[in-house]
Amino acid sequence: MIKNSQIKIYKSKIGGINIRVKFNRETVWMTQTQIAELFGTKRPAITKHINNIFESKELIEKSNVLKRNIANSDKPINRLKLKPGEFSKKVIELALKIPEGRITTYGILAQVAGGHPMMVQMITHILGKSPDVDKIPFHRIVYSNGKVWLEPRYEKERLKLYKKEGIKLDENNKLIDFDKKVFTF
Predict the structure, then answer these.
(1) Which residue has the higher pLDDT, 12 or 7?
(2) Which of 57, 77, 107, 143 fits a disulfide with 147 by CB distance 3.0 to 4.6 angstroms?
(3) Per the structure, how many domains does the chain have?
(4) What pLDDT is stored for residue 5 in this prediction?
C-alpha cells in the first residue's frame, strides 16, 4: 500500500489491481466501477447487488452514496463508501456455522463479524476468495427482505440445495417462512 496524502493505492499480491480510493473521515469512497474492478466483475453486477441491498433496506442509500457530476455531462457518478476492516476471517468462520436448512442475511453476517453495515457489499467477495470456498454455503446468505440472489451460472445448483435443505422460495425468489429460517448466531 502506497500512501499519498488522501489517496491510497492498493496493489494486489499478484500485481493485478491498482485502485485509488478517497478517504473522508475514516471512510473509504469508491465508485461502482472501482468496486467492480476490485471484485473482478463488471459494473452492472455491482449495481444490481447494491440496488438489492437498498431495496431490502439493509442500507439507506442517502447515507451511503455520494453523488458527483462529470464535467460536461449530466450523468452523476455514484461513489459508495466502504470502511476498511480486518473482519474477513470472522465472516468466513460465521458463514461456515450457518446450519443446514437455515439462512442468515448479509447484514446480520456483517454486524456479527464486527463490520460496518456497508461491509455487506464485500461479503460475497470475501467468501468467494476464501481458501474454504468449496465449503461455504453461499445459498444460506440472503438479503434482509428474504430475497435470494440467483446468479444465472449458479441458479440450478442453488435451487437444488434449497430443495434438499427444505428451503422454499416463492415465484419472486423470496424465501417462504423467512422469519422462521433466519439464523442470528
Answers:
(1) 12
(2) 143
(3) 2
(4) 41
pTM of the prediction?
0.55
- CA 84 and chain centroid, separation: 14
Residues 135-157: tens digit of each pLDDT:
999 899 999 899 998 878 888 89
C-alpha torsion angle, residues 138, 140, 146, 149 (rounded to 10): 20
- Cell 439507506 -> residue: 60
Sign of CA dihedral 41, 28, 115, 145: negative
- Asked whether residue 25 falls in the same domain as residue 47, the answer is yes
Instruction: Specify whether 147 is located in the same domain as 92.
Output: yes
Sign, CA torsion 12/17/21/27: negative
Question: Length of the chain in residues, anyone?
Answer: 185
Mean pLDDT of 130-138: 85
How far is 8 from 18, CA to CA, in rounded Å? 10
Full residue range of the structural domain in which residue 100 is found: 88-181
Same-domain check for residues 92 and 36: no
Q: Are residues 44 and 107 in the same domain?
A: no
